[in-house]
Design brief:
Layout: H1 3-14, E1 23-27, E2 33-37, E3 44-46, E4 54-58, H2 60-68, H3 73-78, E5 82-86, H4 88-97
Parallel strand pairs: 1-4
Antiparallel strand pairs: 1-2, 2-3, 4-5
Helix pairs in contact: 1-2
Protein name: SCP2 sterol-binding domain-containing protein
Pfam family, one: SCP2
Length: about 100
């Protein structure tokens, strides 16, 4: 999966109103970032690296597994496949979106 296809998949899941009510960034290191602005209406998804309420450090492969439903966010966190910094409540709400 490429960064662009992951961005498109997240954009489709987020829609106009994700209910996230915050900003969240998937930081995939050298592969790039995906930022969900769930505080704006309509919600937006971009690859612009900005400060967010919550940052999820994850590999592109693990993000793909999460989008495919093969990796639950809570399971990924417990297994160390993703790291959360910032507002943990935002990360918990992410499970409803993804």
């Amino acid at each position: 999966m490429s960064l662009e296809s992951a961005t498109q998949a997240i954009r489709a899941k987020v829609g106009d109103d994700s209910g996230l009510n915050a900003t969240l960034k998937f930081d995939m290191g050298a592969d790039g970032v995906i930022v969900i602005d769930g505080a704006s209406t309509p919600n937006t998804v971009s690859n612009t690296n900005t400060d967010t309420d919550c940052t999820v450090g994850i590999t592109l492969d693990n993000l793909q597994a999460m989008l495919d439903g093969d990796l639950e966010p809570a399971t990924g966190f417990m297994a160390g496949k993703l790291k959360v910094s910032g507002d943990m409540g935002v990360a918990m709400r992410l499970q409803r979106v993804i």
